[in-house]
Amino acid sequence: MITISSEDLEAETKRLGVRIIEQNERQSSGLFSKQFWIKRLLGLSVRYPKLKIELFRFVDVLPSLRSSKDITDHLSLYLLDGKTEIPKWLGFFLRTGISILPISFVLGSSVRFFVLYASKNFIAGKNFTEAKHRLLSIRKKSRVFTLDILGEAALSEKEALRYQKQYLEVLSDLDSFSGFEQTSYGSCPYVNVSVKCSSLYSQISSLAKENSVSVLKERLRPILRLAKEKNAFINLDAEQFDYKEILMSLAEEIFLEEEFKGYPHFGVVIQAYLQNSKEDLQRIISYSEKRGVPITVRLVKGAYWEYEVIKAKEKGWEIPVFESKAETDLNYEECSRILLESFPNILSAFGSHNIRSLAFVLSFAEKQGLNPRDFEIQMLYGMGDSYKSVLTQLGYRVREYTPLGEILPGMAYLVRRLLENTSNQGFLQNFLTGRIKQTHLLQNPKETIHDKL
């Protein structure tokens, strides 16, 4: 194991972080840059936070509204009833105006159109065929992608089997994107497919763990077989904490089956906001060594923080996640070290838009002697495009997490992405709006935690 001094690593992390930020700024400061206008829009969300929240609540309910009148009625309810920064006199004037039938019809139709149009920034298409031109655009930028079929947990077995069919259809259509990148450890498929296991079994339950694992293995095997045939990569996505032990056991058992243990293109997701994430990593490292070929671990911060905290408090349980962002950021860096030190028994994919976190990963990997193509950076489709360009130019493999699906089941995903883009704690928000200095954005999370004590 290579010994790296914490002082040298910290200095290199900050140097690289500044380089990425400055290079990004040079590329995105022009008047005709998409990023230039995103900065202005994000700035509005800082000035009017109440309006932002109510607007996103409206977007979340929009797919269930059938008529233009329904849309304008809810628009008035969420935005013009005095809860937001809109002055009461102006709210009264606007409510009166949109109650007129012709105006109501035109406005309702226009709102639906613009929300659906905006969703295309985050959702590549209803299906693989519709998304093809956007996927080709990603490849032309020398980037690769992960396909994610949108939708929450299946509510019936009929729906679960329909999701299984969708995964199989996507894998069947991948021929036009088949191919590999060659790396120092072997080949890496251009295409990943993320599988949400809760979509494959409607009765998944932590109270029936063994049965849940058994059924999920049956549902997964046809998907894994087709992935092997198509030389595609399958990633078992992370979900809420309640399913974690099911998913961990499922991955370990099925990836060690004789039929699949020799295939190198399977992966799992670890969420750094979980307090036991390092123990989970050690478990994956152990069974990856038994396979003889590596498992890929996608490390993310986690997407269900509020849900986990609220549910744990409601049930009187111990909260499974770190309760501060700085603690999660620090754990992300510590998990990153474990992953990179485990190469090549474990391959790593780092999902983040936080430049401090990514700069740490890149600096530690370099000091470990890893090639920039020995791991990959993953970012969400429609977010941080200028950063993706910078990292690609620096020689790193960048993969875009690309959703497919109808806007109705995808709306929850869309709202989460919009909230991430405008979160007051979000790195992109803080940097793009210029609200916080570079030195603070690149601050070691250890120092942030110490400052709060």
Report on this model:
- This is 1-pyrroline-5-carboxylate dehydrogenase.
- InterPro entries: FAD-linked_oxidoreductase-like (IPR029041), Proline_DH_dom (IPR002872), Proline_oxidase (IPR015659), PutA_N (IPR041514).
- Keywords: Oxidoreductase.
- The chain is an alpha/beta fold.
- The chain has 19 helices and ten strands.
- An eight-stranded parallel barrel has the order 1-4-5-6-7-8-9-10, surrounded by seven helices. It has a two-stranded antiparallel ribbon with strand order 2-3.
- Helix 1 crosses helix 15, helix 4 crosses helix 6 and helix 9 crosses helix 10.
- The protein is globular, with a radius of gyration of 23 Å.
- The chain starts with 5 loop residues before the first helix and ends with a helix.
Short description:
It contains 19 helices and ten strands. The protein has helices at 6-28, 34-47, 49-61, 68-79, 88-98, 101-119, 128-140, 157-172, 209-230, 244-255, 277-291, 305-315, 325-341, 355-367, 385-393, 407-422, 427-432, 438-441, 445-452; strands spanning 144-149, 180-183, 186-189, 191-195, 233-236, 266-271, 295-300, 346-351, 376-380, 397-404.
